[in-house]
Structures are given as structure tokens and as C-alpha cells.
Amino acid sequence: MDVFGGAPRFLAYPRPVVAQSGTDAVLKCQIGGDPRPAVIWERSNEKIDPQGRYRVFEDGNVYNLIITAVTVDDSGQYICKAKNCIGETYAAATLNVEGEAQELELREENMPRFLIKPLSTRVGRGEDAVFSCKLWGNPRPEVVWEKDGKKLNEIFESTHFSVGCQDGGWFQLKIFKTRAPDGGVYTCKARNEFGQDLAGAVLHVSNRHKDDNITKSTKVKMFAVTEGKHAKFRCFVTGKPKPEIIWRKDGRLILSGRRYLLYEDREGYFTLKVLYCKQKDNGVYVCAASNTAGQTLSAVHLSVKEPPVRFKQPLIDLEVWERDLAVLECEVPEDSVPITWYLEDRRLQPGAKYGMEEWGTKRRLTIRDIGVDDDGIYLCEMPDGGRSIAEVAVKGTILRKLPRKVDVLEGENAAFCVEVEKEEMDVHWYKEGMELRETHQTIIKSFGRTHILVFVNTMPQDAGVVTFLVGRSKTSSQLRVKAARHCPPSCPVAVQINTERANAALLSWVPPQDTRKNPPSGYVLERQEMGTGSQEWLQCLTTDTATSVEILGDSVPCEADYRFRICSVNKYGKSNNVEFPKAVHLVPVARIQAPLQDALVPEGQDAVFSIELSASVIGTWFLNGTQLQEDERFSMRRSRTHQSLRIRGVRDKDNGAEITFIAYGIRDSAAMYIQGKCESLKGFMDRNKFVEIGNPIVLYCELSDPAAPVHWYKNGVELHTVEGLHIQSEGTMRRIVIQSSEMSHSGVYCCDAIDDVIRFNVEVEAPPVRFSALPDAARNITIYTGCTILLQCELSDSIAQVHWYKDGSKLHPQNGVDILSDGLKRQLVVQSAEFFHSAPPVKFSAITEEMRSQSIVAGCPLVLRCVVSDPEAHVSWCKEEMQLVSNATIELHSEGNTRTLVVQSAEPCHSGVYRCTTQDDSVEFHVEIKALPVTYSTIFDVERSKSLEEGKPLELECDVADTTLPVHWYKDGVRLFPQNGWDMQSVGTLRRLVIPSAELLHSGFYSCETPDDTVHFPVDIKALPVTITTVGEAERNKSVEPGEPIALRCEISDPNARVTWYKDGIELLESAGREMVAEGSVRTLAVQSAMSSDAGIYSCQTTDDAAQFHVDVKGDLFVFLLCSYCQHTTPSLSNTAPVGLPIILQCEVSEDAAQVSWFKDVVELFCRTGLDMKRDGRLRKLIIHSAKVSDSGLYTCSLANDAVTFHVDVEAPPVGFSAPQEITANTFDEEGSPVRLSYDGSHPGDHVHWQKDGEKPLAQSQNEIEKRAKLSAFVSEAAELTPSGAHSCEASGDQIEFKVDVPMNLLFITDLFTSVVEKEQFVLSCEVSRADGVVQWYKDGLEMQPSINVKMDAEGTKRTLTVVSTKLSDNGTYTCRAGDNVLLFKEDVHLDRHVSDEIILSCELSRASGVVCWYKDGQKLQNSENIKLKAEGPYRRLRILSSRVEDSGEYVCDTDDDSIFFHLSITGKHPGTQELLLSYLTDVFNVARIWSLASLRASYEALLYLKPCFFGS
Questions:
Q1: Which of 263, 739, 1127, 1243 has the most CB within a 10 Å radius?
Q2: Highest mean pLDDT range out of 39-43, 407-411, 1062-1066?
Q3: Residues 972 and 1004: beta-carbon distance below 8 Å
Q4: What is the dotted CATH code of the domain comprising 493-586?
Q5: Per CATH, the architecture of 783-837 is what?
Q6: Cβ–Cβ < 8 Å for 1046, 1036
Q7: Minimal CA–CA distance to 1159: which of 1122, 1200, 1203, 1202?
Q8: Domain 493-586 and domain 1116-1215 have a common topology
Q9: Shortest CA distance to 1329 belongs to which of 1262, 1280, 1362, 1383?
Q10: Do 1290 and 1297 contact (CB within 8 A), yes or no?
Q11: Which helix (H) or strand (E) holds 1294?
């Protein structure tokens, strides 16, 4: 079935149109699609509404856009978009309006423009203010004055201002008797038919207030706040004209500054906020409101309470100059009290800017290089909430600073005001580092020493850091633009549907009742096709202001029953849908696009008839007037606009039958003719062919006559070869090939050979539409409000249609929401993001009234808890509109969906209304903190603070007045109950809590509560000091020989305490050869084999004590034990090496960890291609893989206190001269080549003698002596073993010698890569080409010699290397060399270990800072209880503390550039002690030959040391 065949497609693309200015322009395009697509026109991403100068009409499948009286502004690109339920497409058309220059010139001449802009001004309170400007425009522009984005008549009474105009284009605004609220930004907007212009100015009203005295009738309210907290006063005043608000304290005018915030909040309250109250803020605050009608006063007395714990010495206010040093100092009650420094609500950290010092009870904060932005309130806070506050005033060029932050709603004006010390200073404004210039939306003005910056009609992109700069001084402020909260419109009401008119439905509705408050910008109609099983709703119409619309049958894609629904939309969203009450049957008006065709069908084959319509309708098929039904013979299919009938196995009696198709308003007929059976055409393929779109279509058949012509038809229309369609003829084969199939290629194809016809039914199907994979970053997007949301996906089919949904609701294009299609990409664009565009709203779960209203006694913990719907949601806690943050008093917790506020010890000041808010919801808590009742005998004073050592009894006691009074004990707010070891006693009026043996976990805050009172006991349990028993002099000072063990022991007082070992102040960790043992109370550090680097001062430390040990290891630090030069010859420190062979310089140091450096002729060497440096235990090697003459020189291996040198001389190959002319030399390269030695004598008759190795050779079949004229020659037919040697030719006392060397070949026998388990035997074999061939064996470039563990055998031509018992050190590359031939073998040794063994895998890096990763069987390893990963210098070690069978596998130590593999096999059985000793002795003797005498002595001593381990003492 062709599901995608009806996607819209352009049959004729719109062409560029050129029109004269003032004429009508017509843009047109031709579009096909099934169902009929909906077509819209757009310009600049905005839909063109067919009204005014725009008209849209359709003529069949031609769609027209008519623009009347075009102007130069109409020039540009227009987009035609077509869309149906299957897909969408679009194309662009360009309109060019000629006369553009004249039109532009005319517009520029006549559009409004300011010749003189209004000037910013400053007036005194009560004076008149005048703004004047001069405008040009033809016709005369209309002028509107606004203040802060609002029209003047909306905010001022008519008598407070006047607007006028005068001849010459002068316009004037006058404001009478200005008041403080009149200050702000005034804009003048001028408009006429050619355009508009805008200019702005600032009015600054100076305060000249008379004193307002509080009358006796004024009631003064009382307000108390704890020192360091904020105080907030609000008053609500109404009146017309709008009242002017003045705030005073004790009669003095209050101006907005760092500690005083004055503003009008969103609810219309005039607010004064006093930040970080101090004792000097005590006093009477008055809010005076006045307008022309009178004035009113409101007063409140602020009382600032001292904190419960006072500072011995509080902070003192400072005045400092810019770039000076400011020092704040205070004194806390006790030495141990920690403090925290704050600059207002920002916690300070020590660093280059802030220095923080503590000594005794004094605390100091140093502020370096102080600037204007450091001006503010500084706080020193103790853990109990006590604060000391100081105000730092920075004096300098800037007198009035910017506020730290400015919050405005989107669309409001944002104003910044700065005052400097002098007039006419060079000042600059910046936002996010970019200097600002004055525009129509950015006003920058100066009034003497006052400088003002205003952002008009702020948008989210205006947010950022605003900076004012004058000279070297600057002040900055954070501008935050908050999105205004808007709501989508309500849904329409009174929806009705009228179906009286045939094939049509009249839909009507009434706008929502709150239209004035929340008006919709339009309505969206959707339809749903019934009877298909699909629940999908499709948009069918949008309208702006109409409240009724008629839906015609021609507007639906196919005949069906439909139902409709409607919703309201605006830029903030859409309303719920309202469904119309009943369904209606609609039939589209269809036309025939491709009629039925007569068919000639061979008898017995299938006949197919098809018709293509312009719309999808339900039709009926007839055969000779009889209606057909679906059965085994007749098959009817409908695919949108395509209808087809298949008659299976036609018979001769059907010849001449009439086939008729009848649908709504359509009738068409065709004849069917039957052809007798003919064998001239043979088909080799299935005649019913289904092809995916884009794939080739190949139809072929075979003729009986290769010369016979054929004709190809599609649906009765003859086909010819064109681009993309080829008709081919090869012998008897006839073929038609369509290179790339399209939906239009579906149909019935016929190959007509005059006497015979063969038909093919071709159906082109679209492939399934799939989405390309999206990364997580593209699926989960977080953006700020006001920014653009762009969601994008990619399809496999460029014409496929997609639908966008949000929270299950289908989205449609509307203002601010665009749905775009560009090739394979589909995009959803929301121009300005709002909160409702994000995830579902975050709501609070219902809370009981008991939890909402809490009344508790002072001193008890206060816990407020709520549950949100989204565990990731962020909440804000506020108290009395002041946002709360975590501090020493208030704790804010977030666990899963639960949000909690905790005050551990509530005070009366914590009473009030708390609010927890999300972006979408809020919940309130009413909290009342009751003061402790005044009691005289309930609980008497006791020693409440307890501090005792661990293990001693803890007893808390209080005395109550009533012997029957019950009490409850609490610890850290959790109620206590009797349990093991806890005793709660009640004896008379005494109440006791007894813990016989206190532990560290018993520390905390205990409370004993009665119904009326509470007493608290802070309890601190101190751990017993962990001491170290005195260590004897002999134990503390040790002197050992190298190789001897070191054991340092000490005893501590607590067997469970941890100790830390240090050497020379550096903490020690366990490693190979070093163990740290804890047995009861004894702590031991054991070094198995002492080295010179182990000498030093060791210390064992507990948390409370330490013991020191002095260890001396006799002998030098680092010395060389063995030095050798290795090539193929005897080791020596001075040797000559031939060119091309490897050179190995080797020395042995006294310690594994020793670092050496290699030098050549005093220049330090580093690893490179052809030069390697290796370390193997205490061996240090320098390897030159292929010697060159330039490698000659003096090599040095250097330690910190020792060095060894090597003299290396690389011989150059001898410089030979060409042989004399009389001698002809034959060269050969390999065995089997003929050998010819010739000599050209001076006389032909000379008698010559040939000899080999001093003997005359035999002239046999393979040797032959020739003599021609003066030339004598010795010839060997095949160069084998016999010709090798010294050949000489002697004649007449002259002699010449030839040296013949036939090289051997090496053949592989064993694998080049061998893997063997540790302690097993491995054998490497190769074969040489002759039995007397000599080979050398090398390991990692070092020549090997036979030993107890290494055997080298030669049997005939076979050469074998056998390692009897492999060790991990046998890993490496083995080389067999015979002359110039080399074979390389790679050997890999496996490790066999047993359960519970400790295993250490180690490797060495070329760089100590290198990073490695350990893997086991491909899985990355991390530190765990049983696996420890360590890095010690260049060594990287993996330690398995106790191996298990499951630890077997392949281990890899991996760097970025290299990897090393370890094959570990762990079995269950552990060998006995004698087997271990035998293995150890075998290893010793296997490597004894390469050890130095000192090394053998150390091994013998180690064996004596290990003897008790195997056999006991």
C-alpha cells in the first residue's frame, strides 16, 4: 500500500517576480499532494494573513498570493509552505519592486526624524520640568509621550502635565510642580505613514524636603530584630495623584544605599529594608506619603536586640581610600570559637584578596587593594549565630556607588545612578565588558557630577554585569531581568455545530469571559477522522478574531465522519480544547486525474484497472453493470487518491466486458479485451513487483524472434527512452530500466510484441521513516527564560511529516512557536522561553493543618517539612519575604522529594510566616515560638556542661518541684528510652540519666523536658590519649649491615589505635620488602633486606604521642658492583665493535631504586629509535641495536656519587680498491648460486694452478677448470658447503687469492610467539641450511650462554634453545643469529600461584610521572580491600593481598603508548615448605652465573634468614 505517495510536492516552483511600485504583484506555485495540502505563505518567518493588501486564492492545484499596491518594503523573499497529514514541503519566491531607489528616497525624506532631541534635565522638588524637541516629517507625525513605558494619562492626572506643539515642528511636554515619583525616563514617539522614530530623556528630581514631625495622634508601632538580621517595613498608600513617599529615621531623611533599600514591590507596597541591623539603627522610622490633596504618616519603633553571645570586642566601622589596606578586627569570647567572614551574603575565603588571622581570642580580616566594589557590610559570625557587623566605606573618586544587584521585570526600565567627586570627568559605562553607547533603548546622561544609565523596555538579553568606570575607579552591579508571569487564555464557550447545509458544517463559539484580562490572539480548530481507530487530531484551520467558520467537504482529505474541537491561543500558550457536540459526514469534491484505460489481457492472466483522483473518496466498481464485491476473484484497493481493481484469471467470455467506477460526482468506464494464449513472449520474473522509493525498477521479458520490435506502455501510454528511463534490447531480451523509482512510477507496464503482450504491476512504496540517533545533550536542554528554545531531529525521508507534542498535547504553529522543515531536518523553535515551556509544573503535596501551623517552646528544635513532585526541583525558603540560606542557625536539607528547614534551637525571633516556593507552587507555614515560662522551683540550676574522658561514668541530674512530675530525656532532639547500659532514675524530685561507661558516640546535646520547662546539658566525651611505652636506647638506635633485616617495634596503650610510620618526615606505606604489623598493642615496622637508602630517622606516631628511631645502614649510598660491555665477545670495558652489530653496555648498582644517567662524550643520552635504556633489578643497560661509526666514543653511566666509563670503537668497513683489470670477480648472494673465479693472465700459454685451502680441488661434475686464451677460470655449479673457503690462483710466480663464503639460511620451526606457564620448560628451535653452521642466541639483545637452566643444542641442521624452568624475568624477545640471518622469538611467561598467596605485579615506566591503568580480563581495576594499586617513583605495582581462584586471568598495565601483560593462574593447593625451598634454590642456581660475588653472598644470607621459615628453628 502506498502510504507516502500523497506527500505534497511542487509540480511548478514559484518564479521570481518583478513589479513596479504601486502595482499588484502575483506569486504562484503549483503543488500536488494526497490528501490535498494546506498551503500558507510566509515572510520573515511570519505567516501572511489574507487580509488588507494580501489575498490568497486557489485555481485547481495552482496557489496564488496577490499583493496589491506593492512598495519597496514588499521586496524580499516569500515562502510557500504546503502540508498535509503525510508530509510537508516548501519553496521560496523572490519579489523585486522596481523604483526602489525613488521609494527609499521618498520614505527617507518624509519619515519622522528628530532634528533636536529632548534633553535630560534636573529640577528641584516642586519646580516645573519641560521637555522640548523638534521633529521633521511629511505628513506631520503624530507624537505620543510616555514615562517608563506607560502613557502619561494612565499615571498622571490631567492637571499635572500638558502636551503641546508649535509651528516649525516643535513639540513640548511640561510637568507642573514635580514630585519625586515624577523622576524617570520619558520617551517621545513620532509616527507617520512612512515610519517612526523615538527619543528619550531622563528627569531627575532633587529632594528638598521640609521636616515632617510626628503628631501626637500618630500611633508608633513596635518592631524588634536581633542584631545582624534585616528589618523590613511596608506601608500601603493609595491616592490620586499617586502619592510621594518619604522615609525618615529620627527626623533625618533616608536615601537608598548599601544598607537601606527603598522600593515599591509588585503588590504596590512602599517598602524600606534595613540590612544587617546594628545598635545604631535603634529609633523611630516614619513613612510620609503626600500628594496635592494632603499627607499621611505611619511610624514604627525599631529595637535591635543584642545577640545571646556577645563579642568581647565588636567590629568597628571603617573609612578607607581606594587601593589602600582595610583591617577589621574583633575579639570572640573564647580561644576555641571559630568564626566565618561575610561580605553581606557572600562568604569570604582566604586568598590573595582576603587575609584571615586568628591568635588567642582575636580575629582579623585584611582586605588588600580595596576598591569601590569592596564597599559594603562585613560580618563576623560565630557558630551560635552571634554576629558582629562593620560598615566599610571606600572613599575615592566615586561618591555614590551602584547597588550590588538590580532586579526588574521584562519590559520595565532599569536605571543606574552614580555620583563622582568632580564635574566633567571622563566616564564610561560597560555591560559584560562591552562599552555602551547611547541608542534609542540605552540612555546615557550626565548632570554635573551625577551620571545616569537607563535601559528602556528591558529584555532578558539585557541581563548582565553593568560597570561604571572613571579613571582607575570602578563600581559594578548585577542586572537581573525576570520574565513576567503570564498565563495562557481561557477556552471558548457555547460551542455549536450546524449541519443543515449538505456536505458542510458551520462551527460557532463565544470568546472566553476573561477576554479583557487575558485576551487570546486567535483560535485553533482541529479535526479527527472517525472509524479509523486513530485518536490523532489534525489542525485544519486557524482564525484571529472570527467566532464562526464553515467547514466544507472539499477541505477534508477523504470521505469520512469527522468531529471537531477548538482552543484559544496567545503567545503565552493555549487553552484546553473544547469539542463540538456531534460529528458530520464530509466528502471531498474529487476530479479524475488519470482515467481508466482499456485493457488487453491474455486469457488466464490477471486484469488490473486503476484510476487516479484528486481527492480520497469511497467508490464502487461495476462489471457490465453488476456491482462487484471483494472475493477470491475480485480484489479492490484504495490508497488515498489511487483506486484499483484486480480481476484474477480472466476468461474468454469476459472479452468486451465494461468496467465502471462510480464515486461521489464521478463516473468513468473502460473495456476489457481477452487475448488467446500465445507463446511468443516469455516472462522470467514476478509480474507483481513491489519496489521501495529510490530503488531501480527493472522489467524484462524474452522474445521468440530476436528481430521482433516491441513497444512499452505504462497505463496505456507508450514509453520512450528519456533521462532516468532506458529501454534496452539484447538478442531476444527486452528490458526497461528506471534508475530511481518515484511514487509516480506505480502502475501497469506492458510490453507489446504485436502478437503478444506481457504486463507487469508495479507498486512503488516509500521506506519506513526513521529518526536519526540523538545524543543525550540534545535530548535534555536547560536554558534561561527569554532565550530561544531550538529542538531538532533528523528523519530518513525528507518529505515525511512529523508532529510535535508537549506533555502529551500536540503543538501547532502560533505566535512565538514555529515548526520548521528543512530537508531531512525538523525543528521546533520557541522564540522566547517561559517557565511553562519546561517540564511539568513542580507542585507540593498536600500538608496537614497541624504541620502548617506550629507552636513550640523556645529552645526546642523547629522542623518544617514539605514534599515536591520533582526530586530534582529547586526550592527557596523565605521568612517574611526574606530569603533564607543555610547558616549556623538554620539548616536547609533536600533528600529525594522532601525539603526540610531545621532550626536546632528556636528563639522567639523565629516566629513568623515561612514560605517554601518552587517556580510553580508555594506552601506556607505559620510558626509561633513561645517564650519559656517563668518558673521558680521546677528546675534548679545545675552544672550543665559536662566534659569527661572516655570510659568514665556520665551522670546528668536535674531537680523538679513536684515529685510526680514526669520528664523526658532527649539527645540531639531524639527522645531517649532505657536500654542496655543506660539508666533513667527518678528519686523524689531528682531526675537522673546515668551512663556507666561513656563512649565517644555519647557526646551531644542532652535535654530534660517537663511540660513547662527544659534544661539542656552539652556533653563532650574526650578519647583517652594513646601513648607509646618508653622504648629502650638499643631499640631506638640501630646500626645494621646492608642486606640484614630491620625491625622497629613499639607498644601503645590502646590495642585498637592506629599508628602512622614516618621516615625523615615522609609517611611510609607498605610495599615489597617493607611490612607494617599490628599484633595486640605492639606495632612493628619490618624491612626484610636493609639498603643504604633505608638509613634515616623513623618515627611511629599516634594521635597523642610519638616515638623516634635512628637507623644507620653501613656502606656507601650507591656503588657499581659489576660493569660489562656485551657484543658477541668477551665482556670488557674497552672494546672494538664492527659496524651493524648490537652494542650492550651493562653495569650493576648496589640498590634496585638507584637512578643512573647515561652520557656519551659528556652529552646526556635519552631513549630514541635504535637506542634503549633498560633496568632489570640492579642491572642498568644501554643498548645500541645496530652500531655505526658515529657511535664510537666515551660512554659514562653516572650515579650521584659514582660513575663508570666505557670506551667504544666502531670499526668502519675496510676501504677496498677495485680488482685489477686482469681479475674478474663474480659475486653471489645465496646458497645454490654458481661460483665462478677467473684470472686473466698476461700470456695465453701460462700454466695456472687452482687451490682451495692449500689443496688442489677435484674437477668433478660440480667443479670445473676452464682455460681460454689468456683467461683461466674455476667454476663450481652450485654454491654449497664445499666452495666455501680460501681459493688461490698461481701462474708464473704470480698469485691471487679469492675468499668464498656461502651464507647459511635459517628456517622457522617453532612459533614466533610462545606462551608458557611459570616453572615449566620452554623450547625455541630453528633450522640452518648446513650442518656445520654456527648460531648465537640472544635475549633482549644480550648474548646468552649455556647454564644449569639454559641449554643450547645442535643436531644436524637443527638448533635448539631450552630454558628448563621459566621465571617471570624470562619474558622477552629471543634472537637466533647465523651470520647476517636473524630469527626473533617472543616469549611470554605465565604466573602460577596458589589460593591465599600475596601476589605483586610490578612494572617500570620511563617517566616517574606517567599514568597507568590496570585491567583484568578487559575490566578496569580500582583500589579495594583486597587489591592495592601503588606508584613508587617509576614503578607501578598491583598487589593482591590474599589471592583467590577467581583472581586468575590476564592482567594488563596500560599507558597511552605501551602495555605489559601478566598471565596469572591460581590453584587451590598450596605447595609444602620443602617444595618452596626447592623452587627457591633452583632459581638461585639458575641465575648464579650472572650474579656478582656480593649478590651471591646476600642470597646465601637471605637463605639462612629464611631457613627458620621452612624448617623451624
A1: 1127
A2: 39-43
A3: yes
A4: 2.60.40.10
A5: Sandwich (2.60)
A6: no
A7: 1203
A8: yes
A9: 1280
A10: no
A11: strand 1294-1300
DSSP 8-class letter at 119: P
Domain 111-207+409-482: give its CATH superfamily.
Answer: Immunoglobulins (2.60.40.10)
Task: Look at the pTM and tell me if it is higher than 0.70.
Answer: no
Cell of 222: 513596635
Compute the Cα dihedral for 1180, 1186, 1191, 1192 and give only its sign.
Answer: positive
Cα separation, 302 vs 248, in Å, equals: 13
CATH number of the structural domain 849-930 = 2.60.40.10
By the 10 Å C-beta count (0-12 exposed, 13-18 middle, 19+ buried), 325 is classed as: exposed
Q: Which of 582, 561, 565 is nearest to 574 (CA)?
A: 565
**Could you tell me which of 1315, 1223, 1300 has the C-alpha nearest to residue 1263?**
1300
Using DSSP bridges, classify how beta strands 1193-1198 and 1203-1211 pair: parallel, antiparallel or unpaired. Answer: antiparallel
d(CA 616, CA 588): 7
Q: Give residue limits of the domains in the chain.
A: 9-106, 111-207+409-482, 220-305, 318-396, 493-586, 783-837, 849-930, 946-1022, 1033-1113, 1116-1215, 1223-1300, 1472-1513
Quick check: 1381 pLDDT over 90?
Answer: no
Q: Using CA atoms, how far apart are residues 1260 and 1, in angstroms rounded to an integer? A: 91
Q: Which three cell numbers stand for residue 287?
A: 513613612
Residue of 178, 919, 792, 1046 whose CA lies nearest to 485? 919
Confidence band, pLDDT 50/70/90 cuts, at residue 284: very high
Architecture per CATH, domain 9-106, reads as Sandwich (2.60)
CA quadruple 637, 638, 642, 644: dihedral, nearest 10: 20
- Which amino acid is present at 1317? V
Backbone CA torsion sign across 1417, 1423, 1427, 1428:
positive
CA-to-CA dists, residue 464 to 28, 442, 455, 476, 1218, angstroms: 47, 14, 12, 10, 87
Class of domain 220-305: mainly beta
Q: What is the pLDDT of residue 1485?
A: 42
SS3 227: coil
Closest C-alpha to 735, from 762, 700, 704, 707: 700
What's the mean pLDDT in 858-862? 84
Task: Identify whether the C-beta of residue 198 lies closer than 8 Å to the C-beta of residue 440.
Answer: yes
Hey, how many other C-beta atoms are within 10 angstroms of the C-beta on 1238?
Answer: 18
- At 968, the pLDDT band (50, 70, 90 cuts) reads confident
Instruction: Return the ∠ at Cα 58 (arms to 57 and 59), rounded to 5°.
Output: 130
1155: number of CA atoms within 13 Å, CB side?
9
Instruction: Please give the backbone phi and psi of residue 108, each rounded to the nearest 5 degrees, phi first.
Output: -65, -30
Q: How far is CA 68 from CA 30, 81, 840, 1008, in A?
A: 21, 21, 46, 90
